[in-house]
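Comment thread on ticket #2218

A.B. wrote:
> Attaching the input chain for the structure job we discussed in standup.
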Amino acid sequence: MPDHLIVLLAFLIFFAIHVLLERVLSLLNSRYIYARRATVPEAAREIMTPETYAKSIEYALTRARFGHVAAFIGAGETLFFLFSGFIPMLHDFIRSFGFEPLTAGVLLIGGYGLTAMFLNLPLQLYSTFRIEARFGFNTTTPKTFWLDRIKGLAIGLVLGVPLLYALIAFILFSGPLWWLWAGLAVIAFQVVMMILAPIIIMPLFNKFTPLQDGELKTRLEQLAQHCAFAASGIFVMDGSKRSAHSNAFFTGLGKGRRIVLFDTLIAQMNTEELAAVLAHEIGHYKKKHILKTVAISSVLTFVGFFILSLLLDWKPLYAAFNVGAPAKSVGLLVFLLISGDFTFWVDPFFSALSRKHEYEADAYAAAQTSAAPMGSALLKLTEKNLGTLNPHPVYSAYHYSHPTVLERIAALKSTS
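C.D. wrote:
> Ran it. Output below, let me know if you need it in another format.
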Protein backbone atom coordinates (compact mmCIF):
# COMPACT_ATOMS: atom_id res chain seq x y z
CA MET A 1 0.00 0.00 0.00
CA PRO A 2 1.41 3.46 -0.89
CA ASP A 3 2.58 5.61 1.99
CA HIS A 4 -0.06 8.28 1.41
CA LEU A 5 -2.85 5.71 1.66
CA ILE A 6 -1.37 4.38 4.90
CA VAL A 7 -1.41 7.94 6.26
CA LEU A 8 -4.99 8.45 5.12
CA LEU A 9 -6.18 5.14 6.55
CA ALA A 10 -4.40 5.77 9.86
CA PHE A 11 -6.02 9.18 10.16
CA LEU A 12 -9.50 7.89 9.37
CA ILE A 13 -9.15 5.08 11.92
CA PHE A 14 -7.91 7.35 14.70
CA PHE A 15 -10.47 10.02 13.75
CA ALA A 16 -13.35 7.52 13.92
CA ILE A 17 -12.15 6.04 17.21
CA HIS A 18 -11.79 9.50 18.71
CA VAL A 19 -15.27 10.64 17.68
CA LEU A 20 -16.99 7.38 18.67
CA LEU A 21 -15.17 7.09 22.00
CA GLU A 22 -16.16 10.62 23.00
CA ARG A 23 -19.79 10.05 22.03
CA VAL A 24 -20.06 6.65 23.71
CA LEU A 25 -18.57 8.02 26.92
CA SER A 26 -20.97 10.95 26.85
CA LEU A 27 -23.97 8.67 26.35
CA LEU A 28 -22.76 6.37 29.11
CA ASN A 29 -22.40 9.36 31.42
CA SER A 30 -25.85 10.71 30.60
CA ARG A 31 -27.53 7.38 31.33
CA TYR A 32 -25.57 7.01 34.57
CA ILE A 33 -26.58 10.49 35.75
CA TYR A 34 -30.23 10.01 34.76
CA ALA A 35 -30.44 6.67 36.57
CA ARG A 36 -29.41 8.46 39.81
CA ARG A 37 -31.85 11.35 39.50
CA ALA A 38 -34.19 10.26 42.31
CA THR A 39 -32.05 10.89 45.38
CA VAL A 40 -29.67 13.68 46.33
CA PRO A 41 -26.36 12.17 47.50
CA GLU A 42 -26.16 12.28 51.28
CA ALA A 43 -23.02 14.47 51.41
CA ALA A 44 -24.80 17.23 49.45
CA ARG A 45 -28.22 17.21 51.13
CA GLU A 46 -27.48 20.09 53.48
CA ILE A 47 -26.68 22.35 50.54
CA MET A 48 -28.60 21.04 47.53
CA THR A 49 -32.37 20.73 47.51
CA PRO A 50 -34.11 18.02 45.45
CA GLU A 51 -35.28 20.75 43.06
CA THR A 52 -31.74 22.06 42.53
CA TYR A 53 -30.42 18.52 42.17
CA ALA A 54 -33.00 17.80 39.48
CA LYS A 55 -32.05 21.04 37.74
CA SER A 56 -28.35 20.10 37.86
CA ILE A 57 -29.16 16.78 36.19
CA GLU A 58 -31.19 18.48 33.48
CA TYR A 59 -28.35 20.97 32.95
CA ALA A 60 -25.83 18.14 32.58
CA LEU A 61 -28.07 16.25 30.15
CA THR A 62 -28.77 19.38 28.12
CA ARG A 63 -25.05 20.18 27.87
CA ALA A 64 -24.43 16.57 26.84
CA ARG A 65 -27.02 16.74 24.06
CA PHE A 66 -25.52 19.99 22.86
CA GLY A 67 -22.09 18.36 23.07
CA HIS A 68 -23.19 15.64 20.66
CA VAL A 69 -24.30 18.23 18.11
CA ALA A 70 -21.17 20.34 18.57
CA ALA A 71 -18.90 17.29 18.31
CA PHE A 72 -20.41 16.11 15.03
CA ILE A 73 -20.31 19.63 13.61
CA GLY A 74 -16.67 19.89 14.68
CA ALA A 75 -15.88 16.55 13.09
CA GLY A 76 -17.60 17.70 9.90
CA GLU A 77 -15.56 20.90 9.89
CA THR A 78 -12.32 18.93 10.21
CA LEU A 79 -13.26 16.68 7.29
CA PHE A 80 -14.33 19.72 5.28
CA PHE A 81 -11.03 21.50 5.75
CA LEU A 82 -9.02 18.37 4.97
CA PHE A 83 -10.92 16.94 2.01
CA SER A 84 -12.94 19.71 0.34
CA GLY A 85 -10.00 21.36 -1.38
CA PHE A 86 -10.39 24.44 0.83
CA ILE A 87 -6.72 24.47 1.92
CA PRO A 88 -5.06 24.29 -1.53
CA MET A 89 -7.68 26.66 -2.97
CA LEU A 90 -7.03 29.25 -0.24
CA HIS A 91 -3.27 28.79 -0.54
CA ASP A 92 -3.31 29.23 -4.33
CA PHE A 93 -5.62 32.24 -4.02
CA ILE A 94 -3.24 33.94 -1.58
CA ARG A 95 -0.18 33.17 -3.69
CA SER A 96 -1.91 34.57 -6.78
CA PHE A 97 -1.48 38.02 -5.26
CA GLY A 98 2.28 37.57 -5.30
CA PHE A 99 2.82 37.14 -1.56
CA GLU A 100 6.11 35.50 -0.65
CA PRO A 101 5.95 32.15 1.27
CA LEU A 102 6.28 33.77 4.71
CA THR A 103 3.37 36.19 4.41
CA ALA A 104 1.36 33.67 2.40
CA GLY A 105 1.75 31.17 5.25
CA VAL A 106 0.56 33.69 7.83
CA LEU A 107 -2.45 34.58 5.67
CA LEU A 108 -3.24 30.89 5.12
CA ILE A 109 -3.28 30.04 8.84
CA GLY A 110 -5.10 33.28 9.60
CA GLY A 111 -7.68 32.62 6.89
CA TYR A 112 -8.34 29.17 8.31
CA GLY A 113 -8.65 30.63 11.81
CA LEU A 114 -11.18 33.26 10.70
CA THR A 115 -13.22 30.68 8.77
CA ALA A 116 -13.30 28.32 11.76
CA MET A 117 -14.28 31.20 14.06
CA PHE A 118 -17.26 32.14 11.88
CA LEU A 119 -18.35 28.52 11.52
CA ASN A 120 -18.37 28.14 15.32
CA LEU A 121 -20.33 31.34 16.02
CA PRO A 122 -23.78 29.69 15.82
CA LEU A 123 -22.78 27.15 18.46
CA GLN A 124 -21.43 29.86 20.74
CA LEU A 125 -24.59 31.92 20.31
CA TYR A 126 -26.84 28.96 21.06
CA SER A 127 -24.81 27.91 24.09
CA THR A 128 -24.78 31.42 25.54
CA PHE A 129 -28.24 32.73 24.76
CA ARG A 130 -30.26 29.52 24.85
CA ILE A 131 -28.69 26.92 27.15
CA GLU A 132 -26.98 29.20 29.67
CA ALA A 133 -29.94 31.58 29.66
CA ARG A 134 -32.41 28.73 30.16
CA PHE A 135 -30.66 27.66 33.36
CA GLY A 136 -30.24 31.20 34.68
CA PHE A 137 -26.52 31.57 34.11
CA ASN A 138 -26.25 33.92 31.15
CA THR A 139 -25.89 37.62 31.90
CA THR A 140 -24.07 38.41 28.65
CA THR A 141 -25.80 40.99 26.49
CA PRO A 142 -25.60 40.76 22.69
CA LYS A 143 -23.41 43.88 22.77
CA THR A 144 -20.95 42.28 25.20
CA PHE A 145 -20.93 39.04 23.20
CA TRP A 146 -19.98 40.75 19.95
CA LEU A 147 -17.54 43.14 21.62
CA ASP A 148 -15.75 40.12 23.14
CA ARG A 149 -15.34 38.59 19.67
CA ILE A 150 -14.08 41.87 18.21
CA LYS A 151 -11.61 42.32 21.06
CA GLY A 152 -10.46 38.71 20.73
CA LEU A 153 -9.91 39.20 17.01
CA ALA A 154 -7.96 42.41 17.64
CA ILE A 155 -5.77 40.69 20.23
CA GLY A 156 -5.18 37.85 17.77
CA LEU A 157 -4.01 40.36 15.17
CA VAL A 158 -1.76 42.27 17.57
CA LEU A 159 -0.22 39.25 19.32
CA GLY A 160 -1.01 36.18 17.24
CA VAL A 161 0.09 37.47 13.85
CA PRO A 162 3.65 38.42 14.97
CA LEU A 163 3.99 35.04 16.72
CA LEU A 164 2.79 33.27 13.57
CA TYR A 165 5.24 35.28 11.48
CA ALA A 166 8.04 34.24 13.84
CA LEU A 167 7.09 30.55 13.77
CA ILE A 168 6.83 30.34 9.99
CA ALA A 169 10.07 32.32 9.66
CA PHE A 170 11.80 29.75 11.87
CA ILE A 171 10.39 26.95 9.70
CA LEU A 172 11.50 28.57 6.46
CA PHE A 173 14.82 30.16 7.33
CA SER A 174 16.46 28.71 10.47
CA GLY A 175 17.63 25.33 9.18
CA PRO A 176 17.10 21.80 10.49
CA LEU A 177 16.94 22.92 14.13
CA TRP A 178 14.04 25.27 13.48
CA TRP A 179 11.83 23.18 15.78
CA LEU A 180 14.10 24.01 18.71
CA TRP A 181 14.02 27.78 18.09
CA ALA A 182 10.28 27.69 17.44
CA GLY A 183 9.70 25.83 20.70
CA LEU A 184 11.79 28.32 22.63
CA ALA A 185 9.88 31.19 21.02
CA VAL A 186 6.49 29.73 21.96
CA ILE A 187 7.56 29.05 25.55
CA ALA A 188 8.97 32.58 25.88
CA PHE A 189 5.73 33.97 24.47
CA GLN A 190 3.70 31.99 27.01
CA VAL A 191 5.82 33.27 29.90
CA VAL A 192 5.53 36.86 28.71
CA MET A 193 1.77 36.44 28.37
CA MET A 194 1.54 35.14 31.94
CA ILE A 195 3.08 38.43 33.02
CA LEU A 196 1.19 40.77 30.68
CA ALA A 197 -2.25 39.11 30.59
CA PRO A 198 -3.46 40.29 34.03
CA ILE A 199 -2.12 43.79 33.40
CA ILE A 200 -3.08 44.46 29.78
CA ILE A 201 -5.34 41.81 28.25
CA MET A 202 -7.76 40.67 30.97
CA PRO A 203 -8.81 44.27 31.84
CA LEU A 204 -9.98 44.63 28.24
CA PHE A 205 -12.73 42.12 29.00
CA ASN A 206 -13.45 42.55 32.71
CA LYS A 207 -13.20 45.19 35.38
CA PHE A 208 -10.83 44.41 38.25
CA THR A 209 -11.51 46.35 41.44
CA PRO A 210 -9.35 46.14 44.58
CA LEU A 211 -11.21 44.32 47.32
CA GLN A 212 -12.70 46.83 49.73
CA ASP A 213 -11.36 47.13 53.25
CA GLY A 214 -13.21 45.01 55.74
CA GLU A 215 -13.37 41.63 57.40
CA LEU A 216 -12.95 39.65 54.18
CA LYS A 217 -9.92 41.59 52.95
CA THR A 218 -8.26 41.40 56.37
CA ARG A 219 -8.84 37.64 56.58
CA LEU A 220 -7.51 36.97 53.08
CA GLU A 221 -4.45 39.17 53.59
CA GLN A 222 -3.71 37.39 56.86
CA LEU A 223 -4.02 34.05 55.10
CA ALA A 224 -1.71 35.10 52.27
CA GLN A 225 0.82 36.37 54.79
CA HIS A 226 0.54 33.17 56.83
CA CYS A 227 1.20 31.15 53.68
CA ALA A 228 4.09 33.43 52.66
CA PHE A 229 2.29 34.15 49.40
CA ALA A 230 3.28 37.50 47.92
CA ALA A 231 0.77 39.20 45.65
CA SER A 232 0.23 42.68 44.27
CA GLY A 233 -3.28 42.74 45.66
CA ILE A 234 -6.69 41.10 45.99
CA PHE A 235 -9.10 42.03 43.22
CA VAL A 236 -12.78 41.47 42.51
CA MET A 237 -13.65 40.65 38.89
CA ASP A 238 -17.08 41.50 37.50
CA GLY A 239 -17.75 37.94 36.35
CA SER A 240 -21.47 38.62 36.72
CA LYS A 241 -21.16 40.79 33.59
CA ARG A 242 -21.24 37.60 31.54
CA SER A 243 -22.37 34.72 33.72
CA ALA A 244 -23.72 33.69 37.10
CA HIS A 245 -21.01 31.02 37.30
CA SER A 246 -18.38 31.68 39.97
CA ASN A 247 -14.69 31.05 40.43
CA ALA A 248 -11.43 32.32 41.92
CA PHE A 249 -7.85 32.26 40.68
CA PHE A 250 -4.51 33.99 40.84
CA THR A 251 -2.67 35.17 37.81
CA GLY A 252 0.69 36.67 36.92
CA LEU A 253 4.22 35.88 38.06
CA GLY A 254 6.42 36.97 40.95
CA LYS A 255 5.40 40.14 42.72
CA GLY A 256 2.93 40.83 39.90
CA ARG A 257 0.67 37.98 41.04
CA ARG A 258 -2.92 38.99 41.58
CA ILE A 259 -5.52 37.20 43.67
CA VAL A 260 -8.82 37.40 41.80
CA LEU A 261 -12.29 36.60 43.14
CA PHE A 262 -15.42 36.63 41.00
CA ASP A 263 -18.04 38.99 42.38
CA THR A 264 -20.49 36.09 42.12
CA LEU A 265 -18.27 34.00 44.38
CA ILE A 266 -18.15 36.70 47.06
CA ALA A 267 -21.95 36.87 46.99
CA GLN A 268 -22.26 33.11 47.49
CA MET A 269 -19.78 32.35 50.27
CA ASN A 270 -18.89 33.42 53.77
CA THR A 271 -15.48 34.68 54.83
CA GLU A 272 -14.05 31.34 55.95
CA GLU A 273 -15.21 29.58 52.79
CA LEU A 274 -13.58 32.27 50.66
CA ALA A 275 -10.41 31.90 52.72
CA ALA A 276 -10.45 28.16 52.04
CA VAL A 277 -10.89 28.77 48.31
CA LEU A 278 -7.95 31.17 48.34
CA ALA A 279 -5.86 28.68 50.34
CA HIS A 280 -6.64 26.08 47.66
CA GLU A 281 -5.34 28.40 44.94
CA ILE A 282 -2.25 29.19 47.01
CA GLY A 283 -1.79 25.45 47.44
CA HIS A 284 -1.34 25.09 43.69
CA TYR A 285 1.49 27.60 43.88
CA LYS A 286 3.08 26.11 46.98
CA LYS A 287 2.99 22.60 45.54
CA LYS A 288 4.58 23.95 42.33
CA HIS A 289 1.70 22.68 40.23
CA ILE A 290 1.92 25.62 37.85
CA LEU A 291 5.66 25.16 37.40
CA LYS A 292 5.17 21.43 36.78
CA THR A 293 2.41 22.10 34.27
CA VAL A 294 4.53 24.66 32.42
CA ALA A 295 7.46 22.21 32.37
CA ILE A 296 5.31 19.41 30.93
CA SER A 297 3.77 21.81 28.43
CA SER A 298 7.24 22.95 27.38
CA VAL A 299 8.43 19.40 26.78
CA LEU A 300 5.32 18.64 24.75
CA THR A 301 5.85 21.83 22.74
CA PHE A 302 9.32 20.69 21.74
CA VAL A 303 8.08 17.17 20.96
CA GLY A 304 5.27 18.54 18.82
CA PHE A 305 7.54 20.81 16.84
CA PHE A 306 10.09 18.02 16.39
CA ILE A 307 7.44 15.67 14.98
CA LEU A 308 6.23 18.48 12.75
CA SER A 309 9.79 18.97 11.48
CA LEU A 310 9.82 15.35 10.34
CA LEU A 311 6.55 15.69 8.48
CA LEU A 312 6.80 19.04 6.71
CA ASP A 313 8.93 17.70 3.87
CA TRP A 314 7.24 14.29 3.73
CA LYS A 315 5.22 14.20 0.51
CA PRO A 316 2.82 11.39 1.56
CA LEU A 317 1.36 13.78 4.15
CA TYR A 318 0.29 16.17 1.38
CA ALA A 319 -0.82 13.40 -0.97
CA ALA A 320 -2.97 11.75 1.70
CA PHE A 321 -5.20 14.82 1.96
CA ASN A 322 -4.78 16.03 -1.62
CA VAL A 323 -3.70 19.50 -0.50
CA GLY A 324 -1.47 20.20 -3.49
CA ALA A 325 2.28 20.50 -3.86
CA PRO A 326 4.23 20.51 -0.59
CA ALA A 327 4.28 23.93 1.02
CA LYS A 328 5.41 24.17 4.62
CA SER A 329 2.59 26.46 5.71
CA VAL A 330 0.12 23.97 4.22
CA GLY A 331 1.85 21.15 6.08
CA LEU A 332 1.63 23.16 9.30
CA LEU A 333 -2.12 23.64 8.85
CA VAL A 334 -2.72 19.96 8.07
CA PHE A 335 -0.70 19.02 11.15
CA LEU A 336 -2.83 21.34 13.30
CA LEU A 337 -5.98 19.72 11.96
CA ILE A 338 -4.97 16.07 12.41
CA SER A 339 -2.69 16.03 15.45
CA GLY A 340 -5.51 15.97 18.02
CA ASP A 341 -6.95 12.80 16.52
CA PHE A 342 -3.63 11.01 16.94
CA THR A 343 -2.98 12.20 20.51
CA PHE A 344 -6.42 12.17 22.18
CA TRP A 345 -5.57 8.94 24.03
CA VAL A 346 -3.06 10.79 26.24
CA ASP A 347 -5.76 13.14 27.60
CA PRO A 348 -6.76 10.82 30.50
CA PHE A 349 -3.17 10.86 31.78
CA PHE A 350 -3.18 14.65 31.99
CA SER A 351 -6.64 14.59 33.56
CA ALA A 352 -5.33 12.19 36.21
CA LEU A 353 -2.34 14.44 36.91
CA SER A 354 -4.62 17.46 37.23
CA ARG A 355 -6.91 15.61 39.66
CA LYS A 356 -3.86 14.67 41.74
CA HIS A 357 -2.94 18.34 41.91
CA GLU A 358 -6.47 19.26 43.00
CA TYR A 359 -6.38 16.75 45.85
CA GLU A 360 -3.03 18.18 46.97
CA ALA A 361 -4.33 21.75 46.83
CA ASP A 362 -7.43 20.73 48.81
CA ALA A 363 -5.25 19.11 51.46
CA TYR A 364 -3.11 22.25 51.65
CA ALA A 365 -6.21 24.40 52.07
CA ALA A 366 -7.53 22.14 54.82
CA ALA A 367 -4.20 22.40 56.64
CA GLN A 368 -4.15 26.20 56.41
CA THR A 369 -7.81 26.74 57.32
CA SER A 370 -9.76 23.54 58.03
CA ALA A 371 -11.54 20.82 56.11
CA ALA A 372 -15.04 22.04 56.97
CA PRO A 373 -15.05 25.41 55.13
CA MET A 374 -13.25 23.87 52.17
CA GLY A 375 -15.90 21.16 51.95
CA SER A 376 -18.81 23.58 52.25
CA ALA A 377 -17.19 25.89 49.67
CA LEU A 378 -16.95 23.00 47.21
CA LEU A 379 -20.58 22.09 47.80
CA LYS A 380 -21.71 25.67 47.30
CA LEU A 381 -19.68 25.95 44.09
CA THR A 382 -21.33 22.77 42.85
CA GLU A 383 -24.80 23.85 43.90
CA LYS A 384 -24.55 27.38 42.45
CA ASN A 385 -22.95 26.17 39.21
CA LEU A 386 -25.28 23.15 38.89
CA GLY A 387 -22.30 20.84 38.88
CA THR A 388 -22.71 17.13 38.33
CA LEU A 389 -22.56 15.17 41.58
CA ASN A 390 -22.61 11.68 40.06
CA PRO A 391 -20.72 11.44 36.75
CA HIS A 392 -19.87 8.00 35.42
CA PRO A 393 -16.48 6.94 36.85
CA VAL A 394 -15.02 6.17 33.41
CA TYR A 395 -16.27 9.44 31.98
CA SER A 396 -14.85 11.48 34.85
CA ALA A 397 -11.54 9.57 34.70
CA TYR A 398 -11.24 10.43 31.03
CA HIS A 399 -12.48 14.02 31.03
CA TYR A 400 -12.45 15.56 34.49
CA SER A 401 -9.51 17.79 35.38
CA HIS A 402 -10.96 17.96 38.92
CA PRO A 403 -12.15 15.09 41.10
CA THR A 404 -15.90 15.04 41.63
CA VAL A 405 -17.08 17.11 44.56
CA LEU A 406 -18.07 13.96 46.48
CA GLU A 407 -14.59 12.51 45.97
CA ARG A 408 -13.01 15.74 47.15
CA ILE A 409 -15.19 15.92 50.25
CA ALA A 410 -14.38 12.31 51.12
CA ALA A 411 -10.67 13.08 50.77
CA LEU A 412 -11.04 16.18 52.96
CA LYS A 413 -12.78 14.15 55.67
CA SER A 414 -9.90 11.72 55.68
CA THR A 415 -7.50 14.59 56.49
CA SER A 416 -9.51 15.91 59.44
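A.B. wrote:
> Thanks. Noting for the ticket: The first strand starts at residue 208 and ends at 210.
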